[in-house]
């Protein structure tokens, strides 16, 4: 049974399909660095909650950045998301967005040792689905 988790201040939705697939859709850009950090902390806490409910399950996650016309990640935000990417229960993370999002996400991916094997950026969501083998 699908479960949806919503970060109300921004409208970000994380859907757990209860089969090892997670779909994260950002609602809007954070207004400032604090809001971006709080949203990252919410995501980390929510993923931990999902993992604790099914501790043996490994997950693939699709992240849709389509609604983020402006993406600001400071050093603290990058560290929050870097730690999320490193979590052992996340097998693959496909991030879909536009060229502007890619320039903001690239430093985060470069700083993790999982670039291209665990976390990968796509310019369209169809390629992300294919890489995750969702369709």
Helical proportion, percent range: 40-55%
Mean pLDDT metric = 90
Radius of gyration: 14 Å
Structural class estimated from helices and strands: alpha/beta
Low-pLDDT segments, ≥5 res? none
CATH architecture: 2-Layer Sandwich
Q: With helices defined by DSSP (H or I, 4 residues minimum), what is the helix count?
A: 4
The neighbouring-strand order within the major sheet is: 1-2-3-4-5-6
- Beta strand count: 6
**Strand-residue proportion:** 15-25%
- CATH homologous group name: STAS domain
N-to-C CA distance: 19 Å
**What is the CATH fold-level name?**
Transcription Regulator spoIIAA
**Principal-axes shape call:** globular
Question: Largest beta sheet, briefly?
Answer: 6 strands, mixed
Order of helices and strands: EEEHEHEHEH
Tally the structural domains.
1
What would CATH call the class? Alpha Beta
What this model shows, in words?
With 135 residues, the chain is of the alpha/beta class. It has one domain (3-132): Transcription Regulator spoIIAA. Helices cover 40% and strands 24% of the residues. It is built from four helices and six strands, in the order βββαβαβαβα. It has helices spanning 33-53, 75-86, 99-111, 125-132; strands at residues 3-7, 12-16, 21-25, 59-64, 90-96, 119-122. α2 (75-86) crosses α3 (99-111). The longest helix has 21 residues, at 33-53. The two termini are 19 Å apart. The model has no long low-confidence stretch (mean pLDDT 90).
């Amino acid at each position: 049974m699908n479960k949806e988790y919503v970060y109300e201040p921004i409208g970000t939705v994380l859907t757990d399909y209860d089969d090892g697939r997670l779909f994260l859709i950002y609602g809007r850009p954070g207004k400032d660095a604090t809001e971006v950090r709080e949203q990252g902390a919410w995501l980390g806490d929510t993923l931990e909650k999902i993992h604790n409910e099914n501790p043996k399950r490994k997950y693939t996650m699709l992240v849709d950045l389509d609604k983020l016309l402006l993406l600001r990640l400071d050093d603290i935000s990058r560290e929050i998301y870097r730690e999320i990417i490193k979590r052992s229960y996340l097998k693959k993370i496909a991030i879909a967005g536009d060229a502007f999002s890619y320039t903001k996400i690239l430093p985060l991916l470069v700083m993790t040792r999982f670039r291209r094997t665990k976390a990968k950026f796509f310019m369209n969501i169809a390629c992300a689905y294919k890489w995750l083998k969702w369709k």
